[in-house]
Amino acid sequence: MTFEDLVLIQPIRRALNDKNYQIPTPIQSKTIPHALEGKDVLGCAQTGTGKTAAFALPILNFLGGQRPKRKSKSPTALILAPTRELANQIGKSFQDYGKHLKLRHSIVYGGVSQFRQVKSVKNGVDWMIATPGRLLDLIQQKHIDLGNVKYFVLDEADRMLDMGFLPELKKIIGRLPEQRQSLFFSATIPDEISEFAGTLLTDPVRVTVAAKQQKIDQIQQVIKKIDQPKKVAALIELLRQDDVGPTIVFTRTKRGADKIAKKLNDAKINSAAIHGDKTQNARERALKSFAKNRVSVLVATDVASRGIDIRGVTHVVNYDAPDDPETYIHRIGRTGRAGSHGIAITFCSPAEKSKIRAVEKLLGVDLLGEKPRKSRRKPKHSSARSKSRPGKSRSKSGKSRAFSSKSNARSGKSNADSNNSSANSGKSNAHSGKSKKVTGNRKGKAFFGRKRRKSKSSRQKAAVV
User: What is the pLDDT of residues 300-320, one digit of tens each?
Assistant: First the structure.
């Protein structure tokens, strides 16, 4: 299948030809035909699979072909994204694919003044991309109305739930008109996501692109086993190599990102940090500087792992192993884009091995290069094996005969003891009346034991006399 085979209007085909896009990716070829037919879609695909075009092209085809009437303060198509970076990335794709269409748009997110966003939507827009928090804030201020939405897209749904956006999502969805077409995309679809999708979609077509189908084969994956305190020195040494170009370094914490960026700058390696505590303007400046090669290294947290789309990234370094194996795929997907080759290097301390094993299980590959440990259990010897060693068997049987003769000798001794005990039984019976009185408790038993030992010693004295 090619894009020419899809029923797309001419302005969109021209835009695709401008970008030299000819063959759709698996998620695109499976999603676009159903979306063009007006069906709801539940899509499961990782980042880097081309899913933005999978929902952008049908929406632009609808807006450019049917030209629905705009309504004040309301978008005709609404796309929700979890982060500001991803919202901007999706917005850029919409602008590229719809550049030959005369459409109005708005991108709404927090961290910046709302003045321009409110102004852009005042007379109505054809498509809007928004983050849940700022959108709900503008709805509550009555700057935005969702009554005219015909197309609704929820992108990176699993990420939104991880970030705690479920209450906001429910409020936003509750304001959407019932008559609409909805597309729902998530990297994973656990039970919670599936249940949530059921409240949003009507008879959806389910589209899945498995992890092993995704284009990570052009990314060389390397694991470097290294102790945590030695990671900074190893990172500096790596970045100074001649074949290392623009690099994104991923850390687990915001503080770690700032700390690493400072140490790299101190080592004369131009770096910038990007994470959730940075202002929107600071984040945009960092991304712009990295895209224009003013800084060679971008140090980021996972908040940016699904929102960075910069071509020419040669290396991705996982300074900290990701807690979630799915995040690993999103991180390394920042390199090797558009068919180019990329290298993903993960620094793995001894405490992080379990996280890499989780990635190995997801991808079905051996990254650590460690063979599974052999069982230390001794195999059970079969009867055939024992026959093959007659010498040992005979020696064991001889040993057992020696034990049996010893046991017989002991049994003779025990018989002699029993005769002695029976000789004394008459005297023991003389004390039976007392024993019945004292056997009701442990104290009595102990006392009775002492009496027996005393009487025995007295008997021995009597025998001597």
Answer: 988 655 667 788 899 999 999
Instruction: Summarize pLDDT for 85-124 with one digit per residue, the tens.
Output: 889 999 999 999 999 999 999 999 998 899 999 999 998 9
Q: In this structure, what token pair is assigned to residue 222?
A: 């390397």
Residues 329 and 359: their CA atoms lie apart, in Å, by: 9
Alpha-carbon distance of 231 to 262, in angstroms, equals 14
Q: What is the DSSP string of 189-232?
A: --HHHHHHHHHH-SSPEEEE--GGGSS-TTEEEEEEE--GGGHH
CA distance readout (Å), 272 to 190, 200, 219, 279: 35, 39, 24, 13
Choose among 218, 213, 216, 179: nearest CA to 44: 213
Using DSSP bridges, classify how beta strands 181-186 and 125-130 pair: parallel, antiparallel or unpaired. Answer: unpaired
Residue 295 and residue 338 in contact, taking contact as beta carbons nearer than 8 Å: no
Q: Which stretch of DSSP H or E encloses residue 151?
A: strand 151-154
Q: DSSP of 291-311, one letter per residue?
A: HTTSSSEEEE-GGGTTT---T
Contacts 24+ apart (CB under 8 A), 6-9: 6/32, 6/33, 6/36, 6/57, 7/36, 7/61, 8/57, 8/61, 9/61, 9/64, 9/65
